[in-house]
Structures are given as structure tokens and as C-alpha cells.
Amino acid sequence: MIVSARRAWRLFPTFVLSSFVLLTACGNPVATDSGTPAASKQAVGCPQSAGPGGPTLTSIFFGDSSHGIVVGSDAMFAQTGDGGSRWDIVLPPPAVHQISGVAMAKTSHVWVFGDAGLYGVVPGGAPWTLAKTGLVAPVTAVALNGSVMVAIVDAVGGIAATLDNGVSWKVASVDSGLPPLHSITTPDGTHVFAVGDGGTIVASADRGAHWALQASGTTQNLRGVAFTSATTGFAVGDTTTLLTTVDGGATWKPVDLRPTTSGSLSAIAFGDSLHGAIVGQGGTVVFTSDGGAHWKPSLVTDGVWLDAVTFQTPMHGWAVGTQTGMYETKDGGATWPRRNFCRA
Question: What is the set of domains in the chain, with CATH numbers?
Fold first, then answer.
């Protein structure tokens, strides 16, 4: 599963689920053995503001086919244990108000991030704990793969990494002149890629310890990144920007999505090496079933700005955005009916 998210203050964040963790956000939540954060056991029901005019959902992530978490503005935090049929509102870390993203390492660890930093909860019901990353909040994006974590801070383009589930952190060696970074991903737990303003792409080949700039060929702000292998990857951003690489970022080439879509693109995610989707402005969705060789248009009909996308399986995915918008696909991205945020 390859996941990505939009906006500097967030997720989508980019996430990759396997045995490595990279983070950019505000908190490290740890989950109980049931797959839900201990600190969130106090369900508070569905917000009256869910729906049009309600909170923006900024990130969604599944640790497995059943357990998922969605987060957003106004301290929005909800979880599911049945694959998304029902979502229950729960309490986030008390210091976090604007939640940018969430990441789960299967069902054993949960991290949330945003304006207050990075928080986590560990199995067994420990309280939410603020990660001592050595960076300045807010954290903006996260990528994970087992016990490795990397955090990005939007304001200064800083990156920190941990190889022991957040027990200790090391600030990465990064060019001090980097602009804000918005999204991060790791396809294999060793190679890491991050994107940001002005077409910035930076890459690491040693689990986030050292980073080098890559030539993107664009000055557009890049909002999301996803790799399906250590060599094949995609980056998306403003003014319908889509870039692709087949050599680990040594070269990036533009892909013209017009007239398939227009407007800014927020996030990209893949369920496997073939099936993926891009989301963005005005309910934009484009999807692929051949590894990005061709992209087909879909649409969220109520026109919300989609901020994040994720896949549980190659065919089953979710997208979230403004107006508490939550959308589910079971056909690889061809259709995205709206789902009730809370449903009995």
C-alpha cells in the first residue's frame, strides 16, 4: 500500500505500510492490541457539524483491512474496526487542535501529527506522548515502514528520523535552504523521497540520515508523492502537475493530464504497483490500472477539495477532504460514492 496526502500542515503526508515508518506531523499515538489508540477509547459520538460546512478531513489511513483512522481540523479524530462501515468519533491528544495526518504501523502503533507536533500511543494503553524529534512543530507529513520514522517540519524543511519507534531521534542532514516540504514516502524502508514548494524533491538512500536534491524540472509546488518500488515513483502538485520517474528520481518527466483533469492536485496513492489514484481540487479524481501508463478521470460529484487518498487493497480505497467529505471506491477508483462520516 502506498499512500500520500496534501498540504504542508498535514499527512498523506505520505504513508507506506510495511516495516518502516516516516513521519511529518505533530504526535505519536500508540495503539492498543485491538488496533485502536488507548487514549481514544472515550467515544464522543458524531459531530453535529459533520457534512457540508463541517470540519475538513485531512488524512485517512488503514493499518489493515479492518482498522482505520481519519483525522482533520477542529481536533477531528475517528476510527473504524470493521473496514469503514462504521466510524466512531474519539478524543485525540489533548494538545492537538489541527490534525494534519495519521499513520498506523499495522495495528500496533499509531501516530498523529499537526499543529502541536507528533504524538504516539503504544500497545497496552499508555497515554499519548509527544515525540522529542528535535524539530519545531508543526509536523507536516509522515512515511512509515516498520520501526523507522522520519518527521518533516513545514516551516523550515527540517527532517528527523528514528529507527526505534520513536524512542530516539536524529535530525537529518538536509540542505538548510530547503523550502517547506509537504509529503514524504518510502517504498522499501531504505529509500525515502520528499517533495515541497518550488518543485523541490529530496531523496535519501540511507533511511533518512542524509538527503540530496533531485532535479524535478518544475517550479510548481509539489503536494504529494508515492513510489511503487525503489525506482518507480510519482509526484503531484499545483496546476495539474504530475511527474514520474523510473530510475529512483535521477530523472523526472512530466505527464500531461489535460484534458482529463485540471486544477491543483493534492495527493496520490497506490494499492499495488498497478492500481492508484490522484485526488485534488473540485472533487478531482484520476485513476490508473496499469501502473500510471494511462490515467482515467473519475469525479466526486459534490465538488469538495480532496486532501488525501489511501488504499486498503488494490481495488478498495478512500478519499477525504473539505465539508467532512469521505468517499469510498471498491472498483479501483472508477467510482467514489460519498459515505456517511458516522453510521450505525
Answer: 2-329 (2.130.10.10)
Nearest partner of 232 among 198, 197, 276, judged by Cα = 276
Q: 307, 331, 316: which is closest to 85 by C-alpha?
A: 316
pTM of the model: 0.84
Tell me which residue has cell 516495516.
19
CA dist 277 and 228 (Å) reads 12
Mean pLDDT of 165-186: 83
Q: How much is the mean pLDDT over the chain?
A: 80
| Whole-number Cα distances in Å, 144 to 102, 215, 276, 323 | 11, 24, 19, 28
